[in-house]
Design brief:
The chain has eight helices and no strands. The chain is an all-alpha fold and 210 residues long.
């Protein structure tokens, strides 16, 4: 696998992650009966929020400002969801689209940070930020409880994808293979959390009395 092939594959992975996050944002707007303008806002903020924070932190040009395909894609998705009958979307659709975007964007965010010379551990953290921040912003502006403050596995799944990709890439595994393995692992963990309700143990110290 040469560098050009990896670069092209990561570019498609980026657009894929943006698309599914934009869908999840538009579906939240649909669930709340919002206007088309709100659909567009939710799709855009959810699609680019995490990547924007990542680029600002690593001092890179903000990606969607440099690439008009990204906002066009988010706005087109908002319009598509707007004209689609509600029966096409099951109540759990937001969770599943979010799970796909979480795994894809975790890998891409980590890969982009590595390509720009960021050290492995911060690069993996950039992957987690890329994957999670858009959903956090979406939940905050929609007035819904944020997924990151619930014990259900979410950030953990993103961290699995990001850190596993960095580990495999640093171990000499071809980039395409490392990306696929890391994506599959993170998505599988998040899927189990959705289906089985897997969660991390909560802090018990507040329950203790002197």
């Amino acid at each position: 696998m040469n560098a050009e092939l990896l670069y092209n594959a990561l570019g498609w992975l980026d657009l894929f992650g943006i698309a599914v996050f934009a869908i999840s944002g538009a579906l939240v707007a649909a669930r709340n009966g919002q206007t088309l303008v709100t659909f567009a806002f939710f799709a855009l903020v959810t699609g680019v929020g995490g990547g924007t924070v990542r680029d600002l932190l690593i001092d890179a040009p903000v990606f969607w400002v440099q690439d008009s395909r990204v906002p066009i894609l988010c706005l087109a998705i908002a319009l598509l969801i707007w004209v689609t009958p509600v029966r096409f979307w099951r109540p759990a659709a937001v969770d599943w689209f979010d799970a796909i975007g979480l795994a894809a964007y975790s890998v891409f965010g980590a890969a982009k940070a590595l390509q720009l010379g960021i050290d492995p551990v911060p690069a993996a953290i950039m992957g987690v930020i890329t994957a999670c921040v858009g959903g956090v912003i979406r939940d905050l502006i929609s007035g819904e409880p944020s997924i990151i403050v619930r014990p259900e596995l979410y950030v953990t799944a993103g961290a699995l994808s990001a850190f596993l990709f960095v580990l495999l890439a640093q171990s000499g595994v071809p980039g395409i293979v490392a990306a696929f393995i890391a994506f599959a692992a993170g998505f599988a963990l998040r899927a189990l959390a959705i289906i089985k309700g897997l969660a991390l143990p909560s802090y018990r110290g507040a329950e203790e009395k002197d």
